[in-house]
UniProtKB/TrEMBL annotation:
Pfam families, sorted: Cob_adeno_trans (PF01923)
InterPro entries assigned to the protein according to its UniProt record, in alphabetical order: CblAdoTrfase-like (IPR016030), CblAdoTrfase-like_sf (IPR036451), PduO-typ (IPR029499)
SUPFAM superfamilies: Cobalamin adenosyltransferase-like
Pathway annotation: Cofactor biosynthesis; adenosylcobalamin biosynthesis; adenosylcobalamin from cob(II)yrinate a,c-diamide: step 2/7
GO cellular component: cytoplasm
Protein origin, superkingdom: Bacteria
Enzyme class, UniProt record, top EC level: transferase
Main location: cytoplasm
Organism: Marivita cryptomonadis
Protein name, UniProt field: Corrinoid adenosyltransferase
Entry EC no(s): 2.5.1.17
Length: 190
């Protein structure tokens, strides 16, 4: 259980922060940058939820919770030492990726195939979901870069990759099932 009685601790005033295993690192470290971007993504999902309702809102709520799981996963290095931890560290698991894939397949089944790239826009919800998609892609790139330096849960990378796909398909659904997608017209303004 998390208990936050005092919001500021002053322990980060020197430019360092604590990871989930207690190690102190620079706030600009790649690991902090990766999970910080996941936190940013969660905020953008919150904005998208302002436009969502029903099943989409429920899925976005679940995704927000998953993103906290992902942040907890990324802030805890040394996966090989998970068994030695005082408590089992929280890690993204395959079933979270599977859930995204099932939802993508379900949404995509009703969409016409794309014959052009899509410009972010259309409805407000679609625009926000496209913003979620681009922040998810950045979080994925940073997490993949982190994985070249330190151990990273492979399921975390898969989750981010599928999540950006989920946002893309959901954005199309938010545009009247793709009928209101804003299509790119190559060279239209030459």
């Amino acid at each position: 259980m998390v208990v936050l009685n005092k919001i500021y601790t002053k322990t980060g005033d020197d430019g360092e922060t604590a990871l989930g295993n207690g190690a102190r690192v620079a706030k600009h470290s790649m690991r902090v940058t990766a999970y910080g971007t996941v936190d940013e993504l969660n905020s953008v999902v919150g904005l998208a939820r302002l436009q969502a309702d029903g099943d989409v809102d429920a899925s976005l709520s679940r995704i927000q919770n998953d993103l906290f799981d992902l942040g907890a996963d990324l802030c805890r290095p040394d996966m090989e030492k998970d068994g030695e931890a005082e408590y089992t560290p929280l890690r993204i698991v395959g079933s979270q990726v599977d859930k995204l894939e099932a939802e993508i397949d379900g949404m995509n089944a009703s969409l016409n195939p794309l014959r052009s790239f899509i410009l972010p826009g259309g409805t407000a919800l679609s625009a926000y979901l496209h913003q979620c998609r681009t922040v998810a892609r950045r979080a994925e790139r940073l997490t993949v870069e982190l994985a070249t330096m330190e151990s990273v849960n492979p399921a975390a990378v898969k989750y981010l990759n599928r999540l950006s796909d989920w946002f893309f398909v959901a954005a199309r659904m938010a545009n009247d099932g793709g009928k209101a997608d804003v299509l790119w017209v190559p060279g239209a303004n030459r």
